[in-house]
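dumping the sequnces here before i forget
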Amino acid sequence: MTIGFVMLCHTALDRAAQVARHWATRDCPVVIHLDKRVPARQFTKLKKALADLPNVDFSPRFACEWGMWGLVAATQTASELMLRRFPQVRHVYLASGACLPLRPVEDLRRYLDERPTTDFIESVTTEDVTWTVGGLDYERFTRRFPFSWKTQRRLFDGYIALQRRLGFTRRIPDGLDPHLGSQWWCLTRQTLSAILEDPRRPDYDRYFRRVWIPDESYFQTMVRRYSRNVESRSLTLSKFDFQGKPHIFYDDHLQLLRRSDCFVARKIWPQADRLYKVFLSADSAGTAATEPNPGKIDRLFAKAVERRTRGRAGLYMQSRFPNENWENGRTAAPYSVFEGFSELFDGFETWLAKAVGSRVHGHLYGPDRVQFAGGETVYNGALSDSAALRDSNPKAFLTNLIWNTRGERQCFQFGPADNQDISWLIALDPNAQISVISGAWAVPLFQSNRNFSDIRKEAARLQKIEGEHLNILRSPWLKARVRIWTMAEFLENPMEPLQTVIDEISPRGMRRLTEVPRLQDLTGFGRFLQNLKNQGMQPVLMGDFPVGDGPPDSASPRRGKPYLVR
Amino acid sequence: MAFIKSYRLRLARKRWRLRAVLKRRDLRAVVNRTDQIRRPDILLFCTLRNERIRLPWFLRYYRDLGVNHFFFVDNGSDDGSREYLAEQPDASVWTTTASYKAARFGVDWLNGLQMRYGHRHWTLVVDPDEFFVYPFCDTRSLRALTDWLDAAGIRSFGAMLLDMYPKGPIGAQPYHEGQDPFEIACWFDAGNYTIRRNATYGNLWIQGGPRARVFFPDDPKAAPALNKIPLVKWHRDYAYVSSTHMLLPRGLNLVYDDRGGEKASGCLLHAKFLHTFVTKSTEELQRREHYANSAEYRAYDAGLKDNPDLWCKWSEKYINWRQLEILGLMSKGNWA
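..and the predicted 3d for all of it:
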């Protein structure tokens, strides 16, 4: 008892001949079908190359266009020839010219000897199929497909649309339960001959002639009528990409293929010399007991599909430039934005860096330069501190920074004096944690040694900018984690909000803050605000401060002494 | 409106092609071995001037990748480049003393040659200091890539220009003929590139890297473009519009995914910053044959006077393509 290989070939015929020879010389009959569209000269050459092998034969040629009936017709006639000419064959293995045996034939023979009545064919009902491209699964069986998908796409799509509109459907012949699956199977003589000798075969063939991609459904459906024992998987390792095109194997897949323990793989790049050399020379029989285990290869290709369809979150580069809202993550990692904190607290950045153990920058979007942590002039990924470079594309600056520092959380200060172009980016970014003490920008003004009319003007400008920024942060489309306190609110109890924000940054820490940053001296701040009002400017974002000295509440910290909380 | 726009671009493409045909008359064949070219051959097109010292490594690099035939347009070299190239068995060489600028920085000359010889071939258009790196280039030949692109129905392949530089002043380590330039210039900027979409042509416009960082920190808009589409399954109707930055028809510029996925892409390692750069930039400044009145060279010249070091603490040292892929500068896409 032996295995017969039916090979469907159309290109790289020297490789096909090499593989055919490999099987034939190991006592496995081979029937080759060559696509009719290949010039006769090449056919003669192929025949000549294999002329010395008595158990290699050639079946009548059909034109095999992808997705059309020709492929099935070719398979049928080649299988008939195989069953007729080589009576010792028990299993017929359908392979292509780009297939390569990965394990010795002896392994496969023993494997099949142990399962003499099993048909290996992936055969899945249309409801369970997830891999069909173009959304045509059950409709493959109920519409007509006279046009080629590859060369007559408009007619193809148009005709389907027409059929849908007219409600036209075909009746599926009695006794058929549509199944789909990989084209590459291995069937027993009993099952295969039953399919080919079915008295109703002309009816079925006529029906399948107008089914779309019949090579993935004809045998898969028919086998359910006759097989006693269907093992619904293919013995051929064959993976498809997101467009439904087969993945190709190269020399650098050698180890993966070897460890997969699959019997046959497709498709192999014709110039993968090393693969052909290694796998066609190895004859050391392994153990037939080893089951194929393509898990690793599955993962590799699944990752490739994932990369092609979703990509890496937060990455903007030459071949991934998502439209807005199609980013699958606007930035690469979580980060925190602090607004008003460094104005209100003395040495806030140093304190925060210590408290959360992550990188704390100053005002990255400051008007003069980028204030990187530690006063660096260049940062991860060779980001420059030039404000002009940053402002030529402010959003890209942030996405670059977050991408470059993957693995280390970034915190930075932001305020109304900074470049505001990133407001929407951070507001719509689920990775952003934004904490705002509104109106705190007034503290540096309060402390500054400037003419009051300039201060008033500046205060009005900053209040307007921050007001617009806060409107964005209150937008209904908000995705960021945002907390906003007015300055007065915050000062009533500064520890509580700080603790919340910091717990969110490093949840595992969950430490009680033992040291708090030192508040700026706000003595006279209320008076200062009142002066602004008196000059005709209405400061609203800070909340209500009494005109009297000091912050509004009795909980006001005493200047100069950091205090412990609870 | 879309119709008018696409018709206008169609006219533009016809104009570039006509220019290419006319400018072909500038060229005089030094040696024409194009009868050697076979159906599936991969062709490389390059225009150069006085690059003799770079050529041995350049030829070796691309022969190893699997380029079958080289097309050179020599723009009046006087350092023996032309003679050296004419001796190469797999090269065809043309020469001209016409203006590089008038030929739109060589684009017209190469478009003309591609139109005549590149039809239905995979063509790679690079400068003598650009070295093409693509996913799996250490284990798979260029043919593997083009076969895969063919199978996937992709006509053009993007490769961003990645400026490579040495540590220390640019001229400090002299480059020897035949040497791998990246033994000296092995550093690059990993993450300071910014991207914009060109609404007319649909291509991306990428800027950044060490040149923007050091030479253009105050005028970023003037920094050179880094987006390139060097590998195209050529058709005689195609035309490069400006250097290899963009092409017509526009579909060829869509080498990026805009739905969040990653398409496969490579990099062009740019070995510009070797010791030859210092003399070259002075010379080019006098010739004024470069883009935007050689503004770029003017900026370099000003910068070079202080003997700049492009290297910084965050420069990455080049290892291989996998490193570039991890850093997000290029992608395997769905090629696995």
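Chain B has nine helices and 16 strands.
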